[in-house]
Amino acid sequence: RYENLDYLSKPVLLAMVKNNSGFLDLDPLKKDSIKFDQIIGKNALLRKKDLNSELIEVNSVLSNSGSVVFVDSIPEKAQRLSEYLPDGALSKDLQKKLQSAENSIYSMNEEKRQESIKSTIESSLESAGFKSIEIQQVDFFNRTVISRNRIEDWFSIGQKKRKSYADHLIGRFTQEQIEQIKKLLLVAIGGKTVKWRSNWLFVKAVKQQ
Questions:
Q1: In 3D, which of 82, 130, 87 has the Cα closest to residue 102?
Q2: What distance in Å separates the CA atoms of residue 11 and residue 109, rounded to the nearest whole number?
Q3: What span, in angstroms and rounded, lies between the C-alpha atoms of 180 and 170?
Q4: Which of 39, 109, 117, 190 has the fewest other C-beta atoms within 10 Å?
Q5: Does the pLDDT of residue 17 top 60, yes or no?
């Protein structure tokens, strides 16, 4: 329990706010000369417009020889719903078209994207004053229940600010084809436990002295 910890073991909780670029505003830490031995971040690298500047900010609040550890999800390599469809459930042409549509949601060639991600992160870290950079990409598989309501949500059209799975299929498939895919998924995985794949990038680096 927190109250039973000695002074040096008690964690210090800091309420932080984001700056205009969506990154944490670290100015209060710099004003108080607060330094960290290690900073850990989740989904903090791949969605930033100016990664170099933000890594420089992180570096500024690290102690000498301090380190950073980041973990970011890679949607391009994550689970595809088409992989749950039984063989032969769709015609070969329609199956190929669906796989192509799922890949295009992420708007990039996967192999080129993976190499671009790693090289961009490595060069940004080096420019921001980090060394001993390690980057590893790992697949994880979780057992999860896919409710029928969840599938219905995936196939809702025009109901949310963020596009649903079906919203992305519109224009590529007829309404009848989208409904067919939905019904096949309801039968194949609705209310069932499935193995769900996610892909994560692990990054570690040390501050240069």
A1: 82
A2: 43
A3: 13
A4: 109
A5: no
Helix, strand, or coil here: 134? strand
What does pLDDT average to over the chain? 87
Q: Please give the Cα distance from 95 to 78 (Å, whole number).
A: 18
DSSP-assigned states of every residue in 46-92: TT-S-HHHHHHHHHHTEEEEEEEEEEEE-GGGS--GGGGSPTTSS-H
Q: Which residue has the higher pLDDT, 126 or 24?
A: 126
Report the amino acid identity of residue 155: F
* DSSP string for 4-47: GS-GGGSPPP----B-TTSSB--HHHHHTT--EEEEEEES-STT
Helix (H) or strand (E) holding 102: helix 92-104
Q: What is the pTM of this model?
A: 0.76
Q: Which residue has the higher pLDDT, 33 or 78?
A: 78
CA separation for the pair 106, 120 (Å, rounded): 18
CB 155: neighbour CB atoms within 10 A? 19
Backbone angles phi, psi at 72, to 5 degrees: -130, 140
Torsion sign across C-alpha atoms 108, 50, 68, 125: positive
What percent of the chain stands above pLDDT 90? Answer: 58
